[in-house]
Amino acid sequence: MQKRKKSSSATEFFRGIARTLLTRPVTWTANRISSAPKQENVNAALSELYRSITREPGKMGPLVNFHPDENPIIIFSDMHKGTRDGSDDFANCEENFLAALDHYNKRKFYYLNLGDSEELWENILPAVIKSNKACFEAEGKFLERNAFIKLFGNHDLYWGYDLLASAVLKSIYKMPLKAHAGAVLRANLPNGNLDIFCTHGHQGDSQSDGNAFSKWFVSYIWGPLQSFLEINTNTPSCNEENKTLHNQFMYEWSAVQENLVLVTGHTHQPVFNSLTHLESLYLQLEAARSKNDEAAINTILAEIPRRRREYDYVNQSYQSMKPSYFNAGCCCYADGDITGIEIAEGYMRLVKWGKKEGVPTRIVADEIHLVELAGKITG
């Protein structure tokens, strides 16, 4: 015990020295190459990825044709699986996540993971693999049915560029698996197709979406350095201003596309029909007031303050936004809840899994039929 304490004290001593010497230059560098991207960079990156997937399927991601009434899909993002230490954001969510995967696998859902599944900025990969065997086994059941697509994000860039990534994935899942930059789910509808373009959402980020060197630098130097120094450089998932900026950039790109909706993760904030929960509540409030529904008005007014504490921003155009952008949220909320997006029975749904009387329970937070969604997109 004394040796461990001495080692820990020594680590903190050297961390303190490093923090004193490096925090200022690291923060300066972060501000110079901010993780908040520019609209033109986001536009170019998303357009190129979508073009590649639809014209050269398999190179950067798969193009999957499906019938929404017959082929159900669940989309989860941002587990940030760690090593079950004090900084492991996924630990509290594991039970809900495993219950959800079991539910969807039994019902033959296709499983799409949007990235940041493994937290590789703060942890070494072997330790993450060792600590998450149950989750990998649960995901592997989808792979056995050829029903699993794995994307990579900025915190698990390793899966996207390292030459050994495919071999490591095969050793984990016991079957070949490649991680992709994105995927296009092409929904076959009565009046044509609707493309559901899925990617992590860090596209256009100069820290994590640059050339091979920048990706290596972020994965092996930048992320671990920030973790060691215990400093935060305002990534979208933990900074309200960057969440707003990310949502706006992703929406602006999606709104000018044809027959397409965009689904991302990255910010850890659910968005449905281009609206955050708070914006959706304001729309519901307007509808309730137009009907003089006092019960609904009182319920919504009671909910709004809580949502404003979580995220106090409302887009000025929320009443007229095109429903072209969706965000799956994350699977690492502090209270153990997880969120995701289902496509099943013809509907697109925002779902939450949380404990009710101690039992993981699925709750539908919002939904829209894909035929209705396609009409609003084209209209």
Write the layout of secondary structure elements.
Elements: H1 2-32, H2 39-55, E1 63-66, E2 73-76, H3 94-106, E3 110-113, H4 125-131, H5 133-144, E4 148-151, H6 158-161, H7 165-173, E5 179-180, E6 182-189, E7 192-199, H8 212-229, H9 240-255, E8 260-264, E9 270-271, H10 277-290, H11 294-310, E10 325-328, E11 338-344, E12 347-356, E13 359-369, H12 370-378
Parallel strand pairs: 1-6, 2-3, 3-4, 4-5, 7-8, 8-10
Antiparallel strand pairs: 2-11, 6-7, 9-10, 11-12, 12-13
Structural features, described:
The chain is of the alpha/beta class and 379 residues long. It has helices at 2-32, 39-55, 94-106, 125-131, 133-144, 158-161, 165-173, 212-229, 240-255, 277-290, 294-310, 370-378; strands at 63-66, 73-76, 110-113, 148-151, 179-180, 182-189, 192-199, 260-264, 270-271, 325-328, 338-344, 347-356, 359-369. The strands form two sheets. The chain has a seven-stranded mixed beta sheet with strand order 5-4-3-2-11-12-13. A six-stranded mixed beta sheet has the order 1-6-7-8-10-9. The longest helix has 31 residues, at 2-32. The termini are far apart.
Name the features.
379 residues, alpha/beta, Purple Acid Phosphatase, chain A, domain 2, 7-stranded mixed sheet, 6-stranded mixed sheet, 12 helices, 13 strands, 19% strand
Strand order of the largest sheet: 5-4-3-2-11-12-13
**Number of contiguous helices:** 12
Strand content: 15-25%
Domain count, please report it.
Answer: 1
Mean pLDDT: 85
Contiguous low-pLDDT stretches (5 residues minimum) are: 1-7
| CATH C-level class | Alpha Beta
Output the CATH topology. Answer: Purple Acid Phosphatase, chain A, domain 2
CATH second-level architecture: 4-Layer Sandwich
Secondary structure category: alpha/beta
**Radius of gyration computed on alpha carbons:** 21 Å
Number of strands: 13
- Per the principal axes of the C-alpha atoms, what is the gross shape? globular
Order of helices and strands: HHEEHEHHEHHEEEHHEEHHEEEEH
Which sheet architecture does the biggest sheet show?
Answer: 7 strands, mixed
| First-residue to last-residue Cα separation | 68 Å
Helix content: 40-55%
